[in-house]
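Long-time lurker, first post. I've been practising inverse folding by hand and with some scripts of my own, and I keep getting stuck on stretches where the structure tokens seem ambiguous. Below is the full token string for one chain I'm working on. Before anyone asks, I'm not after the true native sequence, just a reasonable design that respects the backbone. If someone could post their per-position residues I'd love to compare against what I wrote down in my notebook.
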């Protein structure tokens, strides 16, 4: 199931812009204090570092990801999720000529 709408949240209006604009996200906070981010990654290959564990939920487009210590790229498309451990690195790539990867990042 794809998350299409999120109700009852507070949105940080200033965007987080990474990698010269190849990744742009906004922080959201739920009434219970839970924090997530929603964003988009344009065609590129990027490396991220995590603090807390993350679940990346694809809501549109697709990407390939590679967790630290792995040589394999794994595809993630709309409606799919993948988990990244805390205090880890992972690579994510969106192929040129394809739709941007739209995501919700669930922390913790």
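-- Answer (accepted) --
I ran through it position by position. Result:
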């Amino acid at each position: 199931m794809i998350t299409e709408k999120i109700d009852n949240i507070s949105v940080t209006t200033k965007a987080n812009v990474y990698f010269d604009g190849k990744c742009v996200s906004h922080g959201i906070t739920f009434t219970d204090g839970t924090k997530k981010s929603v964003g988009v990654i344009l065609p590129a290959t990027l490396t991220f570092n995590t603090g807390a564990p993350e679940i990346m939920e694809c809501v549109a487009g697709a990407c390939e990801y590679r967790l630290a210590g792995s040589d394999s790229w794994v595809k993630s498309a709309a409606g799919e999720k993948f988990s990244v451990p805390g205090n880890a690195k992972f690579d994510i790539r969106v192929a040129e000529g394809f739709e941007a990867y739209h995501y919700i990042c669930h922390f913790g």
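A couple of notes from the structure itself: The chain has a mean pLDDT of 96. The CA atoms of residues 6 and 30 lie 9 Å apart. Happy to go over any region you disagree with.
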